[in-house]
Amino acid sequence: MKLITFKLANQTFALPLADVERVIQVVEMRKLPKTPKSICGIINMHGEILPVINIRLLFMLPVREIELSDQLIIATISSRKVALLVDSTHDVVEIDEEEIIKADKIMFGMKYVTGVVKLENNMVLINDIAKFLSPEELTKLEVEIKNQKPQTKNQKPKTPNPKPQTPNPKPETTNPKQQTKNQKP
Q: Structural domains in the chain?
């Protein structure tokens, strides 16, 4: 099994590489109302709106400001592409399934973890990405995303059109041939 490892608050986690499309540097994100607490915003990636999940909240790790060095792991949850906010990504490692200790054998209630593996003196928690969002949360998220329109990088939010203004009347000009005797040229 291939895993991609990443850091959150100096702890090492992993995801099955099969769930991951790519890793990108953090980009500007927009807030999205009426979404689960773990959603910190949305990004527009090649015209597709992706929710950004702050998985620190899922693991009850201290929340911090997003830094330019942070990364986004683009992955799939139940056919919905998402971006996972992480401190940094590290290696792609290949392990034997027998090396994985099932999460329930270590500690009960590890909702987002399927197993643990030891890599280079580190205990790595292997995440179950399918549990990051419940079916209800995914449904609510889909509704909110459908209500969003993708914005291009330089596009400003639309504002209502102001009332059309009537053009200023042109100043009257006089034709010298139509001048009366009292008017001077």
A: 2-146 (2.40.50.180)
